[in-house]
Specification:
By secondary structure, the protein is mainly α. It is built from eleven helices and no strands. Helix 2 (about 25-40) runs antiparallel to helix 3.
Length: about 240
């Protein structure tokens, strides 16, 4: 095999390990892929981007030490620098990297920087894919960051758009995604004190969860009921 084939084999092995839940094996394969890409193509070549993204994913994985979020941040920032140097700052290929970086920053509590990267990620996804499921998926991350930053009024129009997109693209596999969109919209409406509308959204989401599993005791259902009770107690 040539270098490209070797690199692909390592990345394929890493991906299989991730899907199997073997984070240790995945990290070994991603590190091997990064080492090979750096030696064969150079540390600033686009071939290092996939291994860097993989190492960031491994470091941020819940099975890894929580203290490795700093490491995940460093890996994904390097991937972003390489991507921008090779493709420019507005290339759609930056979208996934920006989305990952936004999520890691959100987890670390750096909400404003997370918002900045996710705004870019949404814009790039819209440019390449339009109002697609993928765009709505990235948009949902931005909505949650805005809610965490106590900016429900800014999140509300995004939540309305994300729900419209998901409803337009709905099929038999869309139940969970639609439920999450209804919850997000309900939380935004709750944040701007439009409680009657928020309760209707939350009740819609609860009904969707129970329709899939009448005996559901999911944490999401408990949260929904808690939010509804809280709003009903408010004057």
């Amino acid at each position: 095999m040539d270098t490209g084939d070797d690199l692909k084999a390592l990345l394929d092995r890493a991906g299989q390990s991730v899907r199997a839940g073997d984070i240790v094996e995945a990290e070994e394969a991603f590190r091997g892929a990064l080492d090979l890409a750096e030696r064969a193509y150079g540390p600033g070549a686009p071939q290092v981007i996939s291994p860097l993204r993989g190492l960031a994913y491994v470091a941020a994985n819940p099975r890894s030490d929580p203290g490795r979020l700093v490491e995940a941040d460093a890996w994904i920032r390097r991937a972003l620098r390489v991507a921008e140097a090779n493709f420019g700052t507005d290339d759609p290929r930056l979208g996934r990297i920006l989305h990952s970086l936004g999520i890691y920053l959100w987890t670390a509590g750096a909400l404003e920087e997370a918002r900045e990267h996710l705004v870019r990620a949404v814009a790039l996804s819209e440019r390449e894919h339009g109002e697609s499921r993928g765009t709505a998926y990235v948009m949902m991350s931005l909505i949650h960051v805005l809610l965490a930053a106590e900016r429900p009024a800014d999140a509300l129009p995004l939540a309305e758009r994300a729900l419209r997109i998901k409803e337009a693209a709905a099929d038999a596999t869309s139940g969970s995604a639609l439920t999450l969109a209804w919850i997000a919209l309900g939380r935004c409406l709750m944040g701007v004190k439009r409680n009657a509308e928020a309760i209707a959204c939350m009740e819609r989401a609860a009904a969707m969860i129970l329709a899939r599993n009448p005996d559901s005791r999911s944490p999401a259902l408990g949260e929904i009921r808690g939010w509804i009770e809280q709003m009903r107690r408010e004057p």
